Amino acid sequence: MAGLNLRFTEEELDSLRARAEAEGRSMQAFAHDAVITAVNEHSRLFDEAADHVLKVSEELNRRLA
Fold this sequence. Notes:
Elements: H1 10-22, H2 27-56, H3 58-64
Helix pairs in contact: 1-2
């Protein structure tokens, strides 16, 4: 499995540690899931924006075709 090294400030690490501990999870699992969630959310927002642009420009695209 490929790895990735990330750098955090002490304050960020303390926050990460506290959140992971509060959820009963390891810092690695918590951070991994947070990154995957962020990637998926970005993809979802992009897809929603693309759908919106297609709907808004549908008539114009039809006339230009």
